[in-house]
Amino acid sequence: MKEACVLIMKSQIQRQQVRTVWWEEDEQGAAVCLVDQSCLPLQVNVLRLRHEHEVAEAIVSLKVRGAPAIGVTAALGMALAAQRLWREQGERMPLHEVYAALGKTQRLLGATRPTAVNLFWALERMQDCARRASDEPQVETLRQLAQLLQQEALQIADEDAASCKRMGELGAQFIQDGDTLLTHCNAGALATSGMGSGLAPIYIAQQQGKHVHVFVDETRPVLQGARLTAWELQQAGVPLTLITDNMAGHFMRHGGIKAVFVGADRIAANGDVANKIGTYSVAVLAHAHHIPFYVVAPFSTVDLTLASGELIPIEQRNAEEVTSIRGERVVPWDVTVANPAFDVTPHEYITALITDCGVARAPFTTSLREMMSSKSE
Question: Where does residue 112 rank: exposed (0-12), middle (13-18), buried (19+ CB within 10 A)?
Answer without folding.
Answer: buried
